[in-house]
Amino acid sequence: MKNVTRDKFDHKINYEFCVAHRNKVEEGTLTGYRWTVKSFLEHIEGEGVDLENIDWTDIDSFIDSMVEEYSQSTTKTRYNHLRSFIKWLRARKGYYTDSEQLPIDSRHLEIKEYIDRGETKKGNEASSKEGVVFVEAGEYELLKENVPAPKFRNELILKMLWHLGLRRMEVTEMQITPEMPHKDEYGNIDFGDNEITVPDVKGGGRELWFRDSLAAPLRRWIESERQAVYYADESQYLFPSRNSEQLTPKRVTSMVDQAAQNAGIQSTVYVDANGNERRRITPHALRHGYGVRHVRNGTDVRTLQQLMGHHDISVTQHYLQFKTEARKRAQHRNAPEV
Q1: Core-binding (CB) domain: from which residue to which, for each copy (predicted)?
Q2: Which range has the worst mean pLDDT, 140-154, 219-233, 322-336?
Q3: Are 145 and 203 in contact (CB under 8 A)?
């Protein structure tokens, strides 16, 4: 990795940052820099925000997403990598000179508040079990009934989030090219085996399998409904939009939020330090519902880790609390009377 070459980087700014640090940090740290900056740049691109215009809320939402997916130690490490990148941008590129927009003194760049909030505050304030905010089956049905327009597309996205446990970015990164109708394959989707290869930001992907109840609307979307979208002919993505070749993760979040509000089941989990409301019903809550359902039905933790694409099994182990819950219900339901 210390022999940094441009072809390993999707973003020029990430390449320049790593080149500037290749003789200052250990190889493992440099690899961490590359991965963290790549993830952050993809995160803000998905939100439609330019790097030079980010503010504290953009870093906040990125760290929030990491708290949901990674262990406490990994989150701290990745955050420190991001802090180094931000300081470098200010020193070398002249970004963020307005301290109101993005304060970067040591007090504001402290990770502890995010860890505390992610592992304690959410758990204390949410109507959830030990911080796992998840959608129940009945709530999912209400969301389907109340999706905003375009209804067919948005209901399909909901089904994919619920049935496959996808992250919102994984939904928006799904591709249908190359198209091979003779093999019944469209990019990441293989209808022959009812299999989807989920894109991974680090390259490669993981395999998931879907039922016919998802295959039917998915096929209809690809073969007919999708063609009515303005950018469909120019786009390689499963979900183009009327404004661009690719639907943004932010739009997925907005759609789920609107469906929850329409259904009358949305609520605020907490208000962060910047005064932003954190909603209970989100794409990630649907993903949590997938994990909870698996554990309740007996899926072992290693298999669930692979299905959900968790890099750290300690994240998956948060769901084990629901295995105890399921055993307790079974005992009360099936134990002989005395």
Answers
A1: 8-90
A2: 322-336
A3: no
Q: Which amino acid is at 287?
A: R
pLDDT digits 0-9 by tens, 274-295: 566 778 999 989 999 999 999 9
Cα 94 to Cα 33: distance, rounded to the nearest angstrom: 20
β-sheet with 189-190: strand ranges across: 179-180, 185-186, 189-190, 195-199, 205-209
197 DSSP assignment: E
Nearest to 292 by CA among 169, 162, 195, 198: 162
- Please give the helix or strand (H or E) that residue 207 lies within, else none: strand 205-209
Give me the torsion for CA of 169, 75, 108, 34, rounded to 10°.
-70
CATH code for the structural domain at 127-328: 1.10.443.10
Give dist(CA 161, CA 214) in Å, integer.
Answer: 11
123-141 tens-digit pLDDT: 434 434 446 889 999 999 9
Amino acid at 10: D
The DSSP bridge pattern shows strands 189-190 and 185-186 to be antiparallel
Structure tokens at 13: 């700014």
Distance between CA atoms of residues 108 and 243, nearest Å: 36
